[in-house]
What does this fold into?
Amino acid sequence: MGTLPRVRVEWREDGGALASGSLPEGATHAIMIDRSGGEHRAAAVGGAWQVALHEPPGFEPPVARFVDDAGRIVRPPVPRGTPVDDAPTPCPACGATRWTATAELVACEVCGHGEELPAVVDAKKATEPGADSPFPPS
It folds into this structure.
């Protein structure tokens, strides 16, 4: 089972950023989206990519789309979940409106961009006698 691709960002003194990461299998380039919505094709060598942005990335987490030499989207091995039929928000990486969700994340069905969902703790169950609880009993 895959996970979301990690994009590393180093902030520069001039207000820009240097973004980098690993390419998924089949991808030859990454396209990074900046705060203004501009797309920047990253330099790629040996399965890694890097790009300098003149402004900070526009999204948190940073958004990168992966493509092959022909410009076709390459979806990283992000888990596919249950389709989310009522999610009209376009993916910030590719513009598609096809999302899936698992218990841990929501991801674009087309390009694999996604976000991890926050962990939810049922405080009542967690404090029941015998439960392994992160909370002390009251």
